[in-house]
Amino acid sequence: NAITNSILFQEQDNNNLPIILRSNENPYGPSPLALKAISNNIKLTNRYNWDIAPELIAELAKKNSVEENNILLGAGSTEILDLVAKYIAAEKSNYVIADPSYDYWTKTMDNLGVHKIKVALTADKKIDLSKMFDSINQDTKLIYICNPNNPTGTICERDQLVTLIKKTPRNVTILVDEAYLEYTKEKTLTELIKSIPNLIIVKTFSKIHGLAGARIGYAVADSSLLDTLRNLQSNTNNSVSVLSKLAAIASIKDDKFINDCYVLNENVRKFTITELTNLNIKCIPSGTNFLYFSLLNYPKDYFGNLEKNKIQGTRIYEEDGKWTRITIGTLDEMRRFVAALK
Ligand code: PLP
């Protein structure tokens, strides 16, 4: 199709390509080192190459200052989320989640009969950590905190989050999703897994690393908690393809690429916020590569305008305030997005 052809054969006619601002992917990625790792090793794909997983796990352990048995690989963080869902669903129970938050993965739990306790955000669209904690009851097996939160882009206050993690009963699994953490200046919470055996941190290469299509993510947690998840994953650590693992190993080492993407995203996000604010559109301050904003003051047909201009956005999350989300693309893409709105 048109997209694949133009990427493969570098025949880019930017004005004709759709602008994909739907799923918070990195418009600049993958890192050149990751691309080189993929193309240099393409011939390795006739073998399982079991030894590559331990190499990547060693790198990830080093990066997160944990031991190798504290890491579990998945085909995207979605596979890890799915393992947690299966683990939780074994008993009659419930789970606590902010609303709205990232909940595509929770359909496994919903379909397996785990009750969902939705907790409204604060007025400024942050996760209400004290209400989340107060919602835990005797049947709660899981509390999920997406930090920064998708779709709102808001960041939890670190001290408050750590307090919640420490006081959550040990029989409740705490799942902290750090998919977008590299777009902030916040430090990962992985060091806490040494003292909190019921904490799972889930991470992905799909966002700032620009490897969404390679499907690679991982969990960081206490080794015995991870053993429980390993027992639910038939192909432990090897559901990820060899090329994706090699790309991840290369990408971890490319600090320059990650930093460049961080800076580009910050600048383009500022541009987008300024332009939307000039259109009287209310935006929530974001620590991520996406923006949450309200269409209440937008008098035109937002989705019609996106469609006419071949721009892929996403849905309305909260009907009352007509809140929606847009991914921060390149400066050129966001200029075209703003022009489409105008
Ligand atoms: N977690 C969050 C918060 C996300 O926004 C996404 C994808 O958009 C995922 C997890 C899943 O990503 P992947 O399975 O590509 O790692």
Briefly say what this structure is.
By secondary structure, the protein is α/β, with parallel strands linked by helices.
Description of the structure:
The chain is of the alpha/beta class and 342 residues long. It folds into two domains: 2-30 and 255-341, Aspartate Aminotransferase, domain 1, CATH 3.90.1150.10; 32-252, 3-Layer(aba) Sandwich (Aspartate Aminotransferase, domain 2). Helix content is 36%, strand content 17%. It contains twelve helices and 13 strands. Strands 2-8-7-6-5-3-4 form a seven-stranded mixed beta sheet. A four-stranded antiparallel beta sheet has the order 9-10-13-12, covered by helices on one side. A two-stranded parallel sheet has the order 1-11. A hairpin with a 5-residue loop joins strand 9 and strand 10. Helix 2 (32-40) runs antiparallel to helix 9, helix 3 (52-63) packs parallel to helix 9 (242-252) and helix 10 (255-278) packs parallel to helix 12. The model is unreliable at 1-11 (pLDDT under 50). The structure holds pyridoxal-5'-phosphate (PLP). Pyridoxal-5'-phosphate binds next to helix 4.
Structural class category: alpha/beta
Number of strands: 13
CATH top level assignment of the largest domain? Alpha Beta
The stretches of 5 or more residues where confidence is low (pLDDT under 50) are 1-11
Mind summarizing the main beta sheet? 7 strands, mixed
What is the succession of H and E elements?
A: HEHHEHEHEHEHEEEHHHEEHEEEH
- The helix fraction, in percent, is 25-40%
User: In what range is the share of β-strand residues?
Assistant: 15-25%
The CATH architecture of the largest domain: 3-Layer(aba) Sandwich
CATH superfamily of the largest domain: Type I PLP-dependent aspartate aminotransferase-like (Major domain)
Terminal Cα separation, in Å? 30 Å
Mean pLDDT: 95
Radius of gyration: 20 Å
Heteromolecules bound: pyridoxal-5'-phosphate
User: What is the fold named in CATH at topology level of the largest domain?
Assistant: Aspartate Aminotransferase, domain 2
